[in-house]
Fold Regulator.
Amino acid sequence: MNNQKKIKIYCVEDDLTFSKFLKYKLSLNPDFEVSIFNTANDLLESLRNAPDIITIDINLPDMQGDALIPLIKEKLPAAILLVISGQNNIQVAASMFKMGVYDYLVKDENTLERIWNVAHNAAKQIELKEEISVLEKVVNKKHDLKTFIKGESTEINNVFSKIEKAITSDINVIISGETGTGKDLVAKTIHFNSNKSKKAYVAVNVAAIPKELVESELFGHEKGAFTGAHQQRIGKFEEAKGGTLFLDEIGEMELPVQAKLLRVLQEMELNRVGGNKNIPLDFRLIIATHRDLKQEVKEGRFREDLYYRLMGFSIDLPPLRERGKDTLFLARFFIEQFSRKNKIKIKELNTCAKKLLLKYKFPGNVRELKAVIETAILMGEEDKIMATDLQVDMADNFEINYKSATTLEDYTIAIIQKKLEENNNNVVLTATKLAVGKSTIYRYIKQGKIKI
Ligand SMILES: Nc1ncnc2c1ncn2[C@@H]1O[C@H](COP(=O)(O)OP(=O)(O)OP(=O)(O)O)[C@@H](O)[C@H]1O
């Protein structure tokens, strides 16, 4: 039995002696909290306290059982109802069961004993329902995260554990990560798995709103607040009432708007542009940025007080290139998703294509991978997806290696690596084109300085 929560039993009964016995008998169970009512109206007035079980005398002075039961069912459809009658009338019993009562008991010397047993069984049923609903929530949560966000790497599993924590409270969340790493996806996942999931999820990309419209977009405006404000407008902050407000690219916000945002967050109320009424706010805030906000503060582009006001639980999304084999896992996921949606045959990646995907740095992260895969499926002529179907610009990757080169050997290796990739890892062809000995290339491969 749940130690925290007692089972509330309400008994409506006009026979005072019987009701005393009833209360005494049921209260012998320490998990039952029993209250007695002598009229139907007294009971109806107390239904807001949501009793779990109600015993009903069928002949009450102010209302008959058949009139009372639908009124209770309307307010508390899940409550368990036990009808207690002075006579054994099969037809009445049948009509009571049709109304959805749990049991129909006739008053005799064993009634108290039977009520006790029925209440006991009903209480067990309530407990079981509660356990199931708790379990369902846990199972759904685990299921949902993986339904929304794909990945198996240690890095993404760390992100999953952070999301699990963020879901259990209303704390501000700050999500950082390069473009396309899934910041919006993570914010949505938190919202739809939190206790705010039935309320609004309002996402605002601060960078995408023209500078002069940011205030009215976020905070709303009154009619006539400025030229062109023909109608009153509710801002995104108000729209998010009771739900989640996701402010993406917060680092792009202009300093004057930052000042207003700070005030609004401190007071959790706002004045629409051109208005003079304080409107209370209620939302959970999730923000995202691809910038290092601390650095932005140092450089004077972001208010320090706002930075501290926004700080909350932080979730850092690693770039795709640091998620190991997730690149291939996600590639397969996107192949299946796109092929199913477009009713085309699901193709596999050939070995060279896999190698190329693992080597490519994906500056656009998961978004870029998705686009590369979808184009490859459409453009490819073969049964499998080949390296040549993947439209990735290896020159960008080369730049990265090239820039980090410090010795002549580093430059040589970077050039050979790039040429090998262009020539589908054909060592002989690459050696000929670069006029170096193929043994040089093999040596670098053996030393692990060049990867194919
Ligand atoms: N782990 C993942 N599993 C499945 N899809 C993903 C995953 N990560 C990202 N995506 C998909 O990649 C695309 C980009 O993700 P999203 O918009 O969330 O990135 P972002 O970090 O918010 O990007 P930006 O910084 O440009 O706003 C979306 O289509 C998203 O559904």
About this structure: The longest strand covers residues 7-12. The chain has a mean pLDDT of 87. The first helix runs from residue 16 to 26. Residues 149-151, 177, 179-185, 248, 290, 366-367, 370 surround adenosine-5'-triphosphate (CB under 6 Å).
